[in-house]
Amino acid sequence: MSYADRGDVQSAIRIMTHGGEPREVQPHHLLEWYVLGDLHDRAGDQVTAKKYFARVAKNDASYFDVAARLAGLGE
Length: 75
Fold this sequence. Notes:
mainly alpha
């Protein structure tokens, strides 16, 4: 079971947050940013959640439900 599933969202965020900007965006970066957006949303940090979801949408607007997630956050 993941940290987030056990209710420790802050630990999950800490583990997932690393590095800087990639030179070239790869599919795993989109997943990483999507997960970070979800974790920040769960933690109640909508500003940071929007930042990560917007980063995903900028690279692939049809990625999973990223448009709906942004809309739900007022974007």
